[in-house]
Amino acid sequence: MPEMPSWLAPLREVGVIPEWMPDAVPMSWLIIILLGLLSYLATRSMRRLPSGLQNTMECLVYVLFRLTEPIMGKWNRPFLPFLAGLFIYIFTMNIFGLIPGLKSPTANINTNAALALIVFGATQYYGIKVNGFVGYAKHFTGEIWWLAPLMVPIHMIGELARPLSLSLRLFGNIMGKDLIIALLLVLGLPLMGVLPPMLVGMTIPSSISAISLVIGMGVIIFAVFASFIQALIFTVLAAVYIAGAMAGHEDE
Q1: DSSP line for 6-43
Q2: Can you give the pLDDT at residue 111?
Q3: Domain that residue 156 falls in
Q4: What's the confidence (pLDDT) of residue 216?
Q5: Of all helices (H) and strands (E), which one includes residue 214?
Q6: Burial 33-61 (b: 16+ CB within 10 A, else e)
Q7: Domain count of the chain?
Q8: Mean pLDDT of all residues belonging to the chain
Q9: Is residue 2 part of a domain?
Q10: Is residue 252 part of a domain?
């Protein structure tokens, strides 16, 4: 399916962005730059009694800290920067598609696969680092040694399915959200006296257009909520996977 036009089209015409590069890549770079700028503005004059942007960011991080604390226990604080960064980045990418002319990078399966592979790599790395290779390998064999030939393939399939599940869940929800919003808004354009090229020659009743606009506004509100929930689910699952890989380590 061809991609819908975006504000990146002029940059492609002058050769700044290669034709082979999907919009998700420069959109992701733009979000990284914006979040970096936002972080700088929030932390350039730190105060013991926060206000403004610093207060907003601290409240968000605190909510994530309290949410993941029951999952990760003593490991919550060391992993909080990773988990909070993951949530903020995914949520920002999710709602980017609500801005006219921009697209959600998470509506591209490659973006989600990259994030899922990062979580997968972190899970395996910290599982081995905390428990040792032998100790972590026991997780795959199970408690009953003579069932190891059966349990090892089952656990390996489960581990490999996690990044696939994370990728497809996020991709399906965000892609569906973007398509529904685009469809409803296109149907509502005739009410504003605008007729897209693909609808030239067609007559759309004004009642349908009005209903489409009203529903579209409701869908946009729901889309913001869904974007938040999907980012939260991805982050919580990442915390569950990493905490599960490190389980069994008794050292403080």
Answers
A1: -TTHHHHHTTSS-TTS-THHHHHHHHHHHHHHHHHHHH
A2: 93
A3: 9-246
A4: 63
A5: helix 206-246
A6: eeeeeeeeebeeeeeeeeeeebeebeeeb
A7: 1
A8: 80
A9: no
A10: no
The answer as to whether 113 is a domain residue is: yes
Number of Cα atoms under 13 Å in the Cβ half of residue 26: 15
Contacts of residue 126, defined as CB under 8 A and 6 or more positions apart, other chains included, come to 242, 245, 246
End-to-end CA distance of the chain: 53
**CA 252, CA 98: separation in Å to the nearest integer?**
45
Q: What is the pLDDT of residues 163-196, one digit of tens each?
A: 999 999 999 888 887 777 766 666 655 444 444 4
Helix ranges (H only) for 44-147 are 52-72, 76-96, 109-141
Task: Say whether 97 sits in a helix, a strand or coil.
Answer: coil
Nearest to 6 by CA among 89, 99, 91: 99
pLDDT tens digits for 195-232?
444 444 444 455 555 665 666 677 778 888 889 999 99
In the chain, the amino acid numbered 139 is: H
pLDDT in tens, 115-127: 999 999 999 999 9
Q: Chain-centre distance of CA 172, in angstroms?
A: 11
Over range 123-136, report the average pLDDT.
88
Task: Measure the CA–CA gap between 149 and 77, rounded to whole angstroms.
Answer: 37
CA–CA distances in Å: residue 214 to residues 59, 124, 195, 217:
33, 47, 18, 5
Rounded to the nearest 5 degrees, what angle is found at the Cα of 106, between the Cα atoms of 174 and 117? 125
Three-state SS at 111: helix
Please answer whether residues 107 and 178 qualify as being in contact, where contact means their C-beta atoms are separated by less than 8 angstroms.
yes
Question: Has residue 83 got a pLDDT over 60?
Answer: yes
